[in-house]
Design a protein that fits this description.
By secondary structure, the chain is α+β, with helices and mostly antiparallel strands. The protein contains twelve helices and 31 strands. The structure holds flavin-adenine dinucleotide.
Length: about 500
Protein backbone atom coordinates (compact mmCIF):
# COMPACT_ATOMS: atom_id res chain seq x y z
CA UNK A 1 0.00 0.00 0.00
CA UNK A 2 1.30 3.51 -0.83
CA UNK A 3 2.35 5.31 2.35
CA UNK A 4 2.80 8.98 3.20
CA UNK A 5 3.22 10.69 6.56
CA UNK A 6 0.28 12.97 5.73
CA UNK A 7 -2.38 12.59 3.04
CA UNK A 8 -4.29 15.76 2.16
CA UNK A 9 -7.69 15.23 0.56
CA UNK A 10 -8.22 18.12 -1.87
CA UNK A 11 -5.76 20.38 -3.65
CA UNK A 12 -7.67 23.67 -3.57
CA UNK A 13 -6.10 26.73 -1.92
CA UNK A 14 -6.18 25.19 1.58
CA UNK A 15 -4.75 21.80 0.58
CA UNK A 16 -2.01 23.38 -1.53
CA UNK A 17 -0.96 25.77 1.25
CA UNK A 18 -0.90 22.93 3.79
CA UNK A 19 1.17 20.74 1.48
CA UNK A 20 3.68 23.56 1.07
CA UNK A 21 3.93 24.09 4.83
CA UNK A 22 4.48 20.39 5.50
CA UNK A 23 7.05 20.09 2.71
CA UNK A 24 8.99 23.07 4.12
CA UNK A 25 9.10 21.24 7.45
CA UNK A 26 10.52 18.16 5.71
CA UNK A 27 7.36 16.04 6.07
CA UNK A 28 6.30 13.60 3.33
CA UNK A 29 2.86 14.96 2.41
CA UNK A 30 0.80 14.01 -0.65
CA UNK A 31 -2.37 15.52 -2.08
CA UNK A 32 -5.24 13.48 -3.54
CA UNK A 33 -7.24 15.75 -5.86
CA UNK A 34 -10.43 15.03 -7.80
CA UNK A 35 -9.69 17.45 -10.65
CA UNK A 36 -7.41 16.15 -13.43
CA UNK A 37 -5.51 19.47 -13.53
CA UNK A 38 -5.33 22.64 -11.43
CA UNK A 39 -7.59 24.44 -13.95
CA UNK A 40 -10.60 25.94 -12.23
CA UNK A 41 -13.69 26.83 -14.20
CA UNK A 42 -15.39 29.90 -12.82
CA UNK A 43 -14.24 32.82 -10.79
CA UNK A 44 -15.00 31.97 -7.11
CA UNK A 45 -12.73 33.95 -4.76
CA UNK A 46 -11.76 37.34 -6.08
CA UNK A 47 -8.66 38.03 -4.06
CA UNK A 48 -6.58 38.17 -0.93
CA UNK A 49 -6.85 40.22 2.23
CA UNK A 50 -3.90 41.88 3.91
CA UNK A 51 -3.16 39.16 6.47
CA UNK A 52 -3.09 36.45 3.80
CA UNK A 53 -0.64 38.53 1.76
CA UNK A 54 1.48 38.84 4.93
CA UNK A 55 1.35 35.08 5.49
CA UNK A 56 2.55 34.50 1.92
CA UNK A 57 5.24 37.14 2.48
CA UNK A 58 6.36 35.15 5.54
CA UNK A 59 7.20 32.34 3.08
CA UNK A 60 8.83 34.67 0.54
CA UNK A 61 6.15 34.15 -2.14
CA UNK A 62 3.90 37.23 -1.80
CA UNK A 63 5.50 38.93 -4.82
CA UNK A 64 4.35 36.11 -7.10
CA UNK A 65 0.75 37.08 -6.30
CA UNK A 66 1.28 40.84 -6.15
CA UNK A 67 2.84 40.83 -9.63
CA UNK A 68 -0.27 39.29 -11.17
CA UNK A 69 -3.06 40.99 -9.22
CA UNK A 70 -4.50 44.45 -8.66
CA UNK A 71 -3.58 46.11 -5.39
CA UNK A 72 -6.65 47.88 -3.97
CA UNK A 73 -8.63 48.70 -0.84
CA UNK A 74 -10.77 45.54 -0.90
CA UNK A 75 -11.85 45.20 2.73
CA UNK A 76 -15.52 45.96 3.30
CA UNK A 77 -18.50 45.21 5.48
CA UNK A 78 -21.85 44.86 3.73
CA UNK A 79 -21.92 47.96 1.47
CA UNK A 80 -19.18 49.84 3.34
CA UNK A 81 -15.64 50.03 2.00
CA UNK A 82 -13.04 49.91 4.80
CA UNK A 83 -9.78 51.64 3.95
CA UNK A 84 -6.69 50.15 5.64
CA UNK A 85 -4.09 52.42 4.04
CA UNK A 86 -3.21 53.85 7.49
CA UNK A 87 -2.67 50.38 9.04
CA UNK A 88 0.85 49.56 10.25
CA UNK A 89 1.67 46.79 7.77
CA UNK A 90 3.80 46.62 4.64
CA UNK A 91 0.67 45.37 2.86
CA UNK A 92 -1.88 48.01 3.83
CA UNK A 93 -4.21 46.90 1.03
CA UNK A 94 -5.80 43.80 -0.45
CA UNK A 95 -5.26 42.16 -3.80
CA UNK A 96 -7.75 41.55 -6.60
CA UNK A 97 -6.76 38.20 -8.13
CA UNK A 98 -9.09 35.41 -9.24
CA UNK A 99 -8.94 32.09 -7.43
CA UNK A 100 -7.80 30.24 -10.57
CA UNK A 101 -4.64 32.37 -10.57
CA UNK A 102 -4.15 32.02 -6.80
CA UNK A 103 -4.37 28.23 -7.16
CA UNK A 104 -2.01 28.18 -10.17
CA UNK A 105 0.63 30.19 -8.30
CA UNK A 106 0.28 28.08 -5.14
CA UNK A 107 0.51 24.90 -7.23
CA UNK A 108 3.73 26.21 -8.78
CA UNK A 109 5.22 26.72 -5.32
CA UNK A 110 4.11 23.28 -4.14
CA UNK A 111 5.64 21.79 -7.28
CA UNK A 112 9.01 23.43 -6.47
CA UNK A 113 8.78 21.79 -3.04
CA UNK A 114 8.32 18.41 -4.78
CA UNK A 115 4.97 17.50 -3.21
CA UNK A 116 3.30 14.46 -4.78
CA UNK A 117 -0.19 15.17 -6.18
CA UNK A 118 -2.38 12.22 -7.15
CA UNK A 119 -4.87 13.73 -9.60
CA UNK A 120 -8.15 12.58 -11.08
CA UNK A 121 -9.19 10.50 -8.10
CA UNK A 122 -11.38 11.01 -5.07
CA UNK A 123 -10.94 10.15 -1.45
CA UNK A 124 -14.03 8.02 -0.85
CA UNK A 125 -13.63 6.92 2.76
CA UNK A 126 -11.31 6.28 5.66
CA UNK A 127 -10.64 3.95 8.54
CA UNK A 128 -8.43 5.10 11.39
CA UNK A 129 -6.73 3.05 14.09
CA UNK A 130 -4.18 3.82 16.80
CA UNK A 131 -1.25 3.98 14.38
CA UNK A 132 -2.63 5.65 11.29
CA UNK A 133 -5.39 6.07 8.73
CA UNK A 134 -6.33 3.97 5.71
CA UNK A 135 -7.49 6.36 3.02
CA UNK A 136 -9.80 4.78 0.44
CA UNK A 137 -9.72 6.09 -3.14
CA UNK A 138 -12.16 6.04 -6.06
CA UNK A 139 -9.74 3.95 -8.17
CA UNK A 140 -10.19 1.10 -5.70
CA UNK A 141 -6.73 1.59 -4.15
CA UNK A 142 -5.99 2.65 -0.57
CA UNK A 143 -3.20 4.68 0.97
CA UNK A 144 -1.82 4.60 4.48
CA UNK A 145 -0.96 7.81 6.37
CA UNK A 146 -0.12 8.80 9.91
CA UNK A 147 -2.61 11.69 9.50
CA UNK A 148 -5.32 12.58 6.98
CA UNK A 149 -6.38 16.20 6.50
CA UNK A 150 -9.69 16.93 4.80
CA UNK A 151 -9.20 20.03 2.64
CA UNK A 152 -11.90 18.71 0.33
CA UNK A 153 -14.30 21.66 0.39
CA UNK A 154 -17.74 22.32 1.81
CA UNK A 155 -19.16 18.89 0.94
CA UNK A 156 -16.13 17.20 2.52
CA UNK A 157 -16.18 13.41 2.28
CA UNK A 158 -13.51 13.29 4.98
CA UNK A 159 -15.69 15.25 7.41
CA UNK A 160 -18.67 13.00 6.76
CA UNK A 161 -16.62 9.77 6.90
CA UNK A 162 -15.09 10.85 10.21
CA UNK A 163 -18.60 11.48 11.55
CA UNK A 164 -17.87 15.10 12.46
CA UNK A 165 -21.03 17.19 12.90
CA UNK A 166 -21.50 20.29 10.75
CA UNK A 167 -24.07 22.36 12.64
CA UNK A 168 -25.29 25.75 11.48
CA UNK A 169 -27.93 27.50 9.42
CA UNK A 170 -29.67 26.58 6.15
CA UNK A 171 -29.54 29.05 3.26
CA UNK A 172 -31.88 32.03 3.16
CA UNK A 173 -30.76 33.28 -0.25
CA UNK A 174 -29.09 31.91 -3.36
CA UNK A 175 -27.57 33.41 -6.48
CA UNK A 176 -26.41 32.10 -9.83
CA UNK A 177 -22.92 32.88 -10.97
CA UNK A 178 -21.94 32.35 -14.59
CA UNK A 179 -19.68 33.36 -17.40
CA UNK A 180 -21.49 33.54 -20.76
CA UNK A 181 -21.47 35.01 -24.24
CA UNK A 182 -24.32 37.48 -24.83
CA UNK A 183 -26.21 38.60 -27.93
CA UNK A 184 -27.03 41.96 -26.37
CA UNK A 185 -24.56 43.85 -24.13
CA UNK A 186 -25.86 44.44 -20.56
CA UNK A 187 -24.89 47.47 -18.53
CA UNK A 188 -21.85 46.40 -16.48
CA UNK A 189 -21.86 47.02 -12.74
CA UNK A 190 -23.92 46.28 -9.62
CA UNK A 191 -27.68 46.68 -9.33
CA UNK A 192 -29.97 46.40 -6.28
CA UNK A 193 -33.68 45.68 -6.37
CA UNK A 194 -36.37 44.06 -4.28
CA UNK A 195 -34.81 40.58 -4.87
CA UNK A 196 -31.31 41.59 -3.77
CA UNK A 197 -27.98 42.29 -5.46
CA UNK A 198 -27.16 41.48 -9.10
CA UNK A 199 -24.19 42.31 -11.29
CA UNK A 200 -22.58 42.07 -14.70
CA UNK A 201 -18.84 42.30 -15.24
CA UNK A 202 -15.89 40.86 -17.12
CA UNK A 203 -13.21 38.51 -15.82
CA UNK A 204 -10.51 40.88 -17.05
CA UNK A 205 -10.47 44.22 -15.25
CA UNK A 206 -8.21 46.93 -13.89
CA UNK A 207 -8.56 49.03 -10.79
CA UNK A 208 -8.06 52.72 -11.55
CA UNK A 209 -8.37 55.29 -8.75
CA UNK A 210 -10.09 52.67 -6.62
CA UNK A 211 -12.72 51.93 -9.30
CA UNK A 212 -13.07 48.67 -11.23
CA UNK A 213 -12.74 49.25 -14.98
CA UNK A 214 -13.80 46.19 -16.98
CA UNK A 215 -12.23 45.07 -20.25
CA UNK A 216 -14.19 46.05 -23.38
CA UNK A 217 -14.37 42.51 -24.73
CA UNK A 218 -14.68 38.93 -23.65
CA UNK A 219 -17.34 36.82 -21.99
CA UNK A 220 -19.63 38.45 -19.45
CA UNK A 221 -19.61 37.46 -15.79
CA UNK A 222 -23.14 37.31 -14.36
CA UNK A 223 -24.36 37.28 -10.77
CA UNK A 224 -28.11 37.11 -10.34
CA UNK A 225 -29.98 36.60 -7.07
CA UNK A 226 -32.80 34.07 -7.29
CA UNK A 227 -36.39 34.64 -6.19
CA UNK A 228 -36.35 31.59 -3.89
CA UNK A 229 -33.27 30.13 -2.22
CA UNK A 230 -32.53 27.06 -4.34
CA UNK A 231 -30.74 23.87 -3.36
CA UNK A 232 -27.09 23.69 -4.32
CA UNK A 233 -27.70 21.30 -7.26
CA UNK A 234 -26.03 21.96 -10.61
CA UNK A 235 -27.90 24.86 -12.30
CA UNK A 236 -28.52 24.97 -16.08
CA UNK A 237 -28.46 27.69 -18.75
CA UNK A 238 -32.24 27.61 -18.59
CA UNK A 239 -32.17 28.39 -14.83
CA UNK A 240 -29.84 31.31 -15.57
CA UNK A 241 -31.99 32.58 -18.40
CA UNK A 242 -35.14 32.47 -16.26
CA UNK A 243 -33.46 34.24 -13.34
CA UNK A 244 -32.17 36.98 -15.68
CA UNK A 245 -35.61 37.52 -17.21
CA UNK A 246 -37.17 37.87 -13.73
CA UNK A 247 -34.67 40.57 -12.75
CA UNK A 248 -33.85 42.35 -16.02
CA UNK A 249 -36.81 41.47 -18.24
CA UNK A 250 -34.38 39.84 -20.72
CA UNK A 251 -31.65 37.19 -20.66
CA UNK A 252 -29.54 39.30 -23.07
CA UNK A 253 -29.34 36.26 -25.34
CA UNK A 254 -26.99 34.52 -22.89
CA UNK A 255 -25.39 31.43 -24.44
CA UNK A 256 -22.20 29.32 -24.53
CA UNK A 257 -21.54 29.35 -20.76
CA UNK A 258 -17.99 28.64 -19.59
CA UNK A 259 -19.55 27.71 -16.27
CA UNK A 260 -22.75 28.17 -14.28
CA UNK A 261 -22.78 27.67 -10.56
CA UNK A 262 -24.92 28.59 -7.58
CA UNK A 263 -23.85 29.94 -4.22
CA UNK A 264 -25.90 30.37 -1.08
CA UNK A 265 -25.51 31.83 2.38
CA UNK A 266 -25.53 28.39 4.02
CA UNK A 267 -23.57 28.88 7.24
CA UNK A 268 -22.06 25.86 8.97
CA UNK A 269 -18.97 24.96 10.95
CA UNK A 270 -17.47 21.61 11.90
CA UNK A 271 -18.09 20.90 15.58
CA UNK A 272 -14.50 19.70 15.86
CA UNK A 273 -11.52 20.30 13.57
CA UNK A 274 -9.91 17.06 14.76
CA UNK A 275 -11.01 13.51 15.35
CA UNK A 276 -7.95 11.48 16.32
CA UNK A 277 -5.76 11.28 13.22
CA UNK A 278 -8.21 13.09 10.98
CA UNK A 279 -8.21 16.89 10.70
CA UNK A 280 -10.28 19.40 8.73
CA UNK A 281 -9.26 22.72 7.21
CA UNK A 282 -10.72 25.36 4.90
CA UNK A 283 -14.23 25.00 3.48
CA UNK A 284 -14.33 21.41 4.79
CA UNK A 285 -14.41 23.00 8.26
CA UNK A 286 -16.53 26.10 7.57
CA UNK A 287 -18.91 27.41 4.92
CA UNK A 288 -20.66 30.78 4.79
CA UNK A 289 -21.79 33.52 2.43
CA UNK A 290 -19.03 35.01 0.26
CA UNK A 291 -19.83 38.47 1.73
CA UNK A 292 -16.55 40.16 2.57
CA UNK A 293 -14.46 37.60 0.62
CA UNK A 294 -13.15 35.69 3.61
CA UNK A 295 -13.43 31.97 2.72
CA UNK A 296 -10.21 31.33 0.83
CA UNK A 297 -8.31 33.60 3.19
CA UNK A 298 -9.54 31.71 6.25
CA UNK A 299 -8.65 28.36 4.65
CA UNK A 300 -5.12 29.43 3.72
CA UNK A 301 -4.57 30.69 7.26
CA UNK A 302 -6.00 27.46 8.74
CA UNK A 303 -3.33 25.64 6.74
CA UNK A 304 -0.55 27.89 8.04
CA UNK A 305 -1.71 27.35 11.64
CA UNK A 306 -1.93 23.58 11.21
CA UNK A 307 1.13 22.89 9.04
CA UNK A 308 3.98 23.38 11.52
CA UNK A 309 2.04 21.78 14.38
CA UNK A 310 1.25 18.67 12.36
CA UNK A 311 4.86 18.52 11.15
CA UNK A 312 6.15 18.54 14.73
CA UNK A 313 3.68 15.84 15.77
CA UNK A 314 4.57 13.64 12.78
CA UNK A 315 8.27 14.07 13.60
CA UNK A 316 7.49 13.23 17.26
CA UNK A 317 8.97 16.53 18.42
CA UNK A 318 5.62 17.40 20.02
CA UNK A 319 2.81 15.26 21.44
CA UNK A 320 -0.43 14.83 19.44
CA UNK A 321 -2.15 17.14 21.98
CA UNK A 322 -0.44 20.08 20.20
CA UNK A 323 -3.02 19.50 17.45
CA UNK A 324 -5.81 20.46 19.84
CA UNK A 325 -4.45 24.00 19.79
CA UNK A 326 -5.29 24.02 16.05
CA UNK A 327 -9.00 23.66 16.85
CA UNK A 328 -8.62 25.93 19.88
CA UNK A 329 -7.14 28.76 17.81
CA UNK A 330 -8.82 28.42 14.42
CA UNK A 331 -12.38 27.42 15.38
CA UNK A 332 -13.07 30.82 17.03
CA UNK A 333 -11.60 32.65 14.02
CA UNK A 334 -14.00 30.98 11.58
CA UNK A 335 -16.90 31.24 14.06
CA UNK A 336 -16.40 35.00 13.95
CA UNK A 337 -16.34 34.92 10.13
CA UNK A 338 -19.65 33.01 10.20
CA UNK A 339 -21.20 35.66 12.45
CA UNK A 340 -19.96 38.60 10.43
CA UNK A 341 -21.15 37.09 7.13
CA UNK A 342 -24.60 36.46 8.65
CA UNK A 343 -24.73 40.07 9.79
CA UNK A 344 -23.70 41.25 6.31
CA UNK A 345 -26.30 39.06 4.60
CA UNK A 346 -28.97 40.56 6.87
CA UNK A 347 -27.81 44.09 6.03
CA UNK A 348 -27.75 43.38 2.30
CA UNK A 349 -31.30 41.97 2.15
CA UNK A 350 -33.80 43.74 -0.09
CA UNK A 351 -34.42 46.94 1.78
CA UNK A 352 -37.58 48.30 3.35
CA UNK A 353 -37.57 51.65 5.14
CA UNK A 354 -36.43 50.12 8.42
CA UNK A 355 -33.55 48.19 6.89
CA UNK A 356 -32.54 51.35 5.03
CA UNK A 357 -32.42 53.11 8.38
CA UNK A 358 -30.27 50.31 9.82
CA UNK A 359 -27.89 50.49 6.83
CA UNK A 360 -27.54 54.23 7.29
CA UNK A 361 -26.83 53.69 10.98
CA UNK A 362 -24.12 51.10 10.26
CA UNK A 363 -22.64 53.27 7.49
CA UNK A 364 -22.57 56.20 9.92
CA UNK A 365 -20.78 54.11 12.54
CA UNK A 366 -18.24 52.74 10.07
CA UNK A 367 -17.39 56.23 8.85
CA UNK A 368 -16.03 56.94 12.35
CA UNK A 369 -12.38 56.15 12.85
CA UNK A 370 -12.48 53.71 15.77
CA UNK A 371 -15.27 51.45 14.40
CA UNK A 372 -13.70 51.59 10.93
CA UNK A 373 -10.40 50.36 12.36
CA UNK A 374 -12.07 47.58 14.35
CA UNK A 375 -14.06 46.25 11.43
CA UNK A 376 -11.18 46.67 8.98
CA UNK A 377 -8.93 44.74 11.39
CA UNK A 378 -11.49 41.92 11.42
CA UNK A 379 -12.18 41.81 7.68
CA UNK A 380 -8.50 42.03 6.70
CA UNK A 381 -7.52 39.36 9.26
CA UNK A 382 -4.91 41.68 10.77
CA UNK A 383 -6.50 41.70 14.23
CA UNK A 384 -6.47 37.90 14.75
CA UNK A 385 -5.60 37.17 18.35
CA UNK A 386 -5.06 33.64 19.61
CA UNK A 387 -5.74 33.29 23.31
CA UNK A 388 -2.30 32.46 24.70
CA UNK A 389 -3.04 33.94 28.11
CA UNK A 390 -2.56 37.35 29.66
CA UNK A 391 0.49 39.46 29.07
CA UNK A 392 1.98 41.85 26.54
CA UNK A 393 -0.46 42.78 23.72
CA UNK A 394 1.83 41.04 21.20
CA UNK A 395 1.20 37.65 22.82
CA UNK A 396 -0.94 35.58 20.43
CA UNK A 397 -0.94 38.35 17.80
CA UNK A 398 0.88 38.57 14.47
CA UNK A 399 4.50 39.64 14.65
CA UNK A 400 4.98 42.86 12.67
CA UNK A 401 7.39 42.73 9.73
CA UNK A 402 9.95 45.08 11.27
CA UNK A 403 13.08 46.31 9.54
CA UNK A 404 15.78 44.96 11.86
CA UNK A 405 19.46 45.79 12.04
CA UNK A 406 21.76 42.81 12.57
CA UNK A 407 25.52 42.30 12.62
CA UNK A 408 25.17 41.00 9.07
CA UNK A 409 23.14 43.99 7.87
CA UNK A 410 19.46 44.94 7.52
CA UNK A 411 16.91 42.15 7.80
CA UNK A 412 13.11 41.95 7.66
CA UNK A 413 11.38 39.83 10.31
CA UNK A 414 9.36 37.98 7.66
CA UNK A 415 12.58 36.91 5.93
CA UNK A 416 13.40 34.97 9.10
CA UNK A 417 10.18 32.96 8.61
CA UNK A 418 10.79 31.86 5.01
CA UNK A 419 11.79 28.34 6.08
CA UNK A 420 8.81 28.09 8.47
CA UNK A 421 11.09 27.68 11.48
CA UNK A 422 10.48 29.34 14.87
CA UNK A 423 12.58 32.35 15.84
CA UNK A 424 13.72 33.74 19.17
CA UNK A 425 14.36 37.38 18.33
CA UNK A 426 16.62 39.02 20.87
CA UNK A 427 16.38 42.79 20.75
CA UNK A 428 18.41 43.32 23.95
CA UNK A 429 22.09 42.66 24.61
CA UNK A 430 23.53 40.25 22.02
CA UNK A 431 24.02 36.76 23.43
CA UNK A 432 21.47 37.31 26.23
CA UNK A 433 19.75 33.99 25.55
CA UNK A 434 20.98 30.44 25.73
CA UNK A 435 18.43 28.02 24.32
CA UNK A 436 20.89 25.27 23.39
CA UNK A 437 18.38 22.44 24.13
CA UNK A 438 16.11 23.80 21.36
CA UNK A 439 18.86 25.03 19.03
CA UNK A 440 18.11 22.30 16.47
CA UNK A 441 14.55 23.65 16.12
CA UNK A 442 14.53 27.33 17.09
CA UNK A 443 16.75 29.97 15.48
CA UNK A 444 18.09 32.70 17.76
CA UNK A 445 18.69 36.07 16.13
CA UNK A 446 20.30 39.08 17.82
CA UNK A 447 19.05 42.30 16.30
CA UNK A 448 18.34 45.97 16.96
CA UNK A 449 15.13 47.79 16.23
CA UNK A 450 14.72 51.44 17.15
CA UNK A 451 11.44 52.23 15.36
CA UNK A 452 7.91 52.35 16.75
CA UNK A 453 5.98 49.24 17.80
CA UNK A 454 2.50 49.57 16.43
CA UNK A 455 -0.22 46.94 15.98
CA UNK A 456 -3.26 47.18 13.70
CA UNK A 457 -6.35 48.40 15.63
CA UNK A 458 -4.51 48.50 19.00
CA UNK A 459 -1.99 51.18 18.06
CA UNK A 460 1.32 51.70 19.88
CA UNK A 461 2.54 49.00 22.29
CA UNK A 462 5.55 48.85 24.60
CA UNK A 463 8.75 47.69 22.92
CA UNK A 464 9.66 44.16 24.09
CA UNK A 465 13.28 43.08 24.59
CA UNK A 466 12.70 39.68 23.01
CA UNK A 467 9.95 37.74 21.23
CA UNK A 468 9.47 34.08 20.45
CA UNK A 469 7.81 33.82 17.03
CA UNK A 470 6.04 30.67 15.86
CA UNK A 471 6.45 29.50 12.24
CA UNK A 472 2.98 30.89 11.46
CA UNK A 473 4.14 34.37 12.48
CA UNK A 474 2.24 34.60 15.78
CA UNK A 475 4.03 35.59 18.97
CA UNK A 476 4.31 32.77 21.55
CA UNK A 477 6.25 34.63 24.25
CA UNK A 478 7.29 38.22 24.95
CA UNK A 479 10.38 39.12 26.98
CA UNK A 480 10.80 42.19 29.09
CA UNK A 481 14.43 42.19 30.31
CA UNK A 482 13.79 38.78 31.90
CA UNK A 483 13.59 35.24 30.60
CA UNK A 484 10.66 34.31 32.79
CA UNK A 485 8.35 31.85 31.07
CA UNK A 486 10.62 31.31 28.05
CA UNK A 487 11.47 27.69 28.84
CA UNK A 488 7.79 26.87 29.37
CA UNK A 489 6.85 28.53 26.07
CA UNK A 490 9.62 26.71 24.19
CA UNK A 491 8.50 23.36 25.65
CA UNK A 492 4.80 24.01 25.05
CA UNK A 493 5.21 25.01 21.41
CA UNK A 494 8.38 23.35 20.18
CA UNK A 495 8.65 20.18 22.21
CA UNK A 496 10.65 19.27 25.25
CA UNK A 497 14.37 19.98 25.43
CA UNK A 498 16.53 17.65 23.32
CA UNK A 499 18.04 14.68 25.16
CA UNK A 500 21.30 15.83 26.70
CA UNK A 501 20.31 19.48 26.31
C1 LIG B 1 -19.11 32.97 -5.54
C2 LIG B 1 -18.01 32.80 -4.58
C3 LIG B 1 -17.23 33.90 -4.30
C4 LIG B 1 -16.21 33.76 -3.37
N1 LIG B 1 -15.46 34.86 -3.10
C5 LIG B 1 -14.45 34.75 -2.20
C6 LIG B 1 -13.56 35.86 -1.96
O1 LIG B 1 -13.66 36.93 -2.56
N2 LIG B 1 -12.57 35.69 -1.04
C7 LIG B 1 -12.40 34.51 -0.37
O2 LIG B 1 -11.49 34.41 0.46
N3 LIG B 1 -13.20 33.43 -0.62
C8 LIG B 1 -14.21 33.53 -1.51
N4 LIG B 1 -14.98 32.45 -1.80
C9 LIG B 1 -14.76 31.20 -1.07
C10 LIG B 1 -13.62 30.38 -1.65
O3 LIG B 1 -13.86 30.06 -3.00
C11 LIG B 1 -13.48 29.11 -0.81
O4 LIG B 1 -13.53 29.45 0.54
C12 LIG B 1 -12.15 28.41 -1.11
O5 LIG B 1 -12.14 27.88 -2.41
C13 LIG B 1 -11.92 27.30 -0.10
O6 LIG B 1 -10.75 26.62 -0.41
P1 LIG B 1 -10.59 25.11 0.01
O7 LIG B 1 -9.27 24.69 -0.55
O8 LIG B 1 -10.83 24.98 1.46
O9 LIG B 1 -11.79 24.33 -0.71
P2 LIG B 1 -12.07 24.19 -2.26
O10 LIG B 1 -11.59 25.37 -3.02
O11 LIG B 1 -13.49 23.78 -2.38
O12 LIG B 1 -11.13 22.99 -2.69
C14 LIG B 1 -11.45 21.66 -2.39
C15 LIG B 1 -10.67 20.78 -3.35
O13 LIG B 1 -10.91 19.43 -3.03
C16 LIG B 1 -11.24 18.69 -4.20
N5 LIG B 1 -12.09 17.60 -3.72
C17 LIG B 1 -13.35 17.67 -3.25
N6 LIG B 1 -13.76 16.47 -2.81
C18 LIG B 1 -12.72 15.63 -2.98
C19 LIG B 1 -12.51 14.25 -2.69
N7 LIG B 1 -13.47 13.52 -2.11
N8 LIG B 1 -11.33 13.70 -3.00
C20 LIG B 1 -10.35 14.43 -3.59
N9 LIG B 1 -10.48 15.75 -3.88
C21 LIG B 1 -11.65 16.33 -3.57
C22 LIG B 1 -11.90 19.69 -5.10
O14 LIG B 1 -11.77 19.30 -6.46
C23 LIG B 1 -11.12 20.96 -4.80
O15 LIG B 1 -9.98 21.11 -5.60
C24 LIG B 1 -15.99 32.52 -2.73
C25 LIG B 1 -16.75 31.43 -3.04
C26 LIG B 1 -17.76 31.55 -3.96
C27 LIG B 1 -18.58 30.36 -4.31
Amino acid sequence: MTEHAVVIAGGGPTGLMLAGELALAGVDAAIVERRPSQDLPGSRAGGLHSRTIEVLDQRGIADRFLLEGQVAQVAGFAFNRLDISDFPTRHNYGLGLWQKHIERILAGWVDELAVTIYRARDVTGLAQDDDGVDVHLSDGESMRAAYLVGCDGGRSVVRKAAGIDFPGWDPTTSALLAEVEVAEEPELGIRQDELGTHSFGRTEYEIRDGEVVFADEGPVGVMVTERQPAPSSEPTLRDLSEALVIVHGTDYGAHSPTYITRFTDMTRQAASYRDGRVLLAGDAAHVHSPAGGQGLNTGVQDAVNLGWKLAQVVKEVSPPSLLDSYHGERHPVAARVLRNTMAQVALMRPADARLEALRETVAGLLSMDEPRKRFAGMMSGLDIHYDLGDGHPLLGRRMPDLDLVTAKGPLRVFTLLHEARPVLLNLGEPGDFDITPWADRVQTVDARYDGPWELPVLGAVTAPTAVLIRPDGYVAWVGDHAQQGLTDALSAWFGRRSPGG
